[in-house]
Design goal:
- Pfam families: Phosphatase.
- This is Phosphatase.
- The chain is of the alpha/beta class.
- The protein has one domain.
- Strand 7, helix 8 and strand 8 form a beta-alpha-beta unit.
- It is globular.
- The model has no long low-confidence stretch (mean pLDDT 95).
């Protein structure tokens, strides 16, 4: 089993935590937009409380370890590896609880190039434990607002993990999947599951709009988030999202493998 010390060292070496690639400028911009309730940054969350930029900086300092100084406006942002480790333990505990009750689960990502393998390993382990891994609305179209305007994508699943792809693109695994923060894919998937009359997920696992969109609709949701994704941490603070793991969500896919081993071992799930 991977020790906590070894995982901490890996988090820092891979820049999943510590000084990360996300810049302070990017994070502060996201906090400003969130405070203005810009839907591009709310990503499906409808905050109950009023959040000013200063409030968000303080929240992200507590949850991620970024600088709490509002006058710190440039350079690389920071994630405290101890906060990542603590959140990974809580994340694993939620997986274990879902496995113990053989809960239906739904997994989706806005980072298919980076995170699909991580989620697919969770899907395999949960399935082996008796959970039903849902794949609703496979192949259905979903409209997403982008910086280029409204675009239509296809909702697809690879290894039982959902993501979106532009219509007409070739399909070598997830290589042509689109990066998105939108909550529209999870809303479509949940609506399709309800329409089909089958089981609804008791746990949604993912990132970006998959977590916020599901949590806002009342589904238990856990996921990963970077320092420029305040919506997930606000959702956790308001009780809409169950667990958020602070880390860089855009490093090489292979760098997440030790995290996979760690959470599955803690959850007592097979790989």
């Amino acid at each position: 089993m991977l020790s906590t010390g070894a995982l901490r060292a890996h988090l820092l070496a891979a820049r999943l935590a510590g000084p990360v690639a996300t810049s302070r400028e990017e994070s502060l911009r996201s906090y400003r937009l969130f405070a203005a309730r810009d839907p591009r940054v709310l990503i499906g969350l409808d905050p109950e409380w009023t959040w000013k930029q200063r409030d968000l900086i303080e929240l992200m300092a507590r949850k991620c370890g970024v600088s709490a100084d509002p006058h710190h406006v440039s350079g690389h942002d920071l994630i405290d590896p101890e906060l990542t480790l603590t959140a990974l333990d809580a994340f694993a505990d939620r997986l274990a609880a879902a496995a113990q009750r053989r809960a239906p689960v739904l997994l989706g990502t806005g980072h298919p190039h980076r995170l699909l393998d991580f989620y697919a390993a969770l899907a395999d382990a949960l399935s082996a434990a008796g959970c039903t891994v849902l794949t609703p609305a496979h192949g259905r179209c979903v409209d997403i607002t982008t910086r280029f305007g409204l675009r239509t994508y296809n909702l697809e699943y690879v290894r039982r993990v959902a993501f979106v792809r532009e219509p007409g693109t070739p399909r070598p695994g997830c290589a042509t999947g689109a990066h998105t923060h939108s909550p529209m894919p999870v809303r479509l998937a949940l609506a399709a599951a309800a329409e089909a009359g089958g089981p609804l997920p008791e746990l949604v696992i993912g990132d970006h709009g998959w977590v916020c969109g599901a949590g806002q609709l009342g589904f238990e949701a856990i996921g990963l988030a970077d320092t420029d994704d305040p919506a997930l941490f606000v959702g956790e603070a308001e009780g809409v999202v169950s667990v958020v793991v602070p880390l860089d969500d855009a490093v090489r896919s292979g760098y997440y493998r030790p995290l996979t081993r760690y959470v599955l071992n803690r959850a007592c799930l097979s790989q």
